[in-house]
Amino acid sequence: MKGVEFPLFKTKVESLEKRFELTDVDQRRKYFRAKAGKEIERLRDYLQENTFIAYLLGKKNSGKGTYARMFREIVDPRRIEHFSIGDMVRALDEVVNNKKKQKELREVLERNYRGFLPLDDIIKALEKRSTKVLLPSELILALVKMEIAEKPKKALFIDGFPRELDQISYSLFFRDLIGYRDDPDVFVLIDVPEKVIDERIKYRVVCPKCQTSRNLKLLPTKKVEYDAKNDKFVLICDDSECGGVPLKPKEGDEMGIAPIMARLQTDEKLIKKAFSLHGIPKVLLRNSVPVDKADDYVDDYEITPAYSYENINGSVKTIKAPWQIEDDDGVLSYSLLPPPVVVSLIKQMVDALAI
Ligand SMILES: [Zn+2]
Fold first, then answer.
1. Sign of the dihedral through C-alpha 59, 61, 67, 68
2. From the CA of 61, how far away is ligand 1's center (Å)?
3. What percent of the chain has pLDDT above 70?
């Protein structure tokens, strides 16, 4: 990230000659056991009796959710929760439009909400809400409390809070306010080059039936077809229940990050602000590694490949090659696949929790 240097993290193990196919679920488990087995055990032991709150801070589309979900899956799905404020707010739409549920929500908020805006104004704002309107921090807090109270206490990855600069100081008291007073909290800061985010958006495609999201350039399906009419290659959904339907781009995605530049700039300010905080442990995750240093720090199978296609007499040949991009400082770099970033998350989390 421009102006802030995230350290490189070494996931390469010279003595480990075995290669792992990281898109395969079973191979991925073996990979994590080989590269972070000891730390995973320590985290599991810790989670028997303890929890933590981790705030995920990264730019929009930086893969925050992917990293947290993978960490949860590998370490202990029963004792870790990935909590997306965005998902929670979207789920509210349904509540707000249903009179009975709205009444329940109001009752809960009357018990839990403390803030400067009257509750009636908030409910009205929710009814008319466009995604651009930011909900007051006090309301988010009350809603998180409501969700957490229903479940047994777990370690939390909070995704989407703080979202604005003035919410950072709020997050410092968050754990006290939701009843996690004695549990440690950690900031997880994620650095992904904007060029990576740009291409993830430009080439992403979605199955119209099952909504599975893939990427024509970075994450293809098994079957690829050539669409002669439009002179384009299309990914075919792997799910047999979708009946060979092609995955489609979403309108506007061809513009990449251009429409979300303002959001990315705010996110960058947030990350930098959190970076300079004292007294709270920080985990620094880096998605890219300079091409000229890659060999010292990572194994080649940990690097994101790029795919291109060739039409040879009606049958499509997939070509896989290393994907090189410039990072935000213009340094020629590779982008890492999620698993090595999660290895770094696991190891740094053990340090941050001092276990
Ligand atoms: Zn599908």
1. positive
2. 22
3. 98
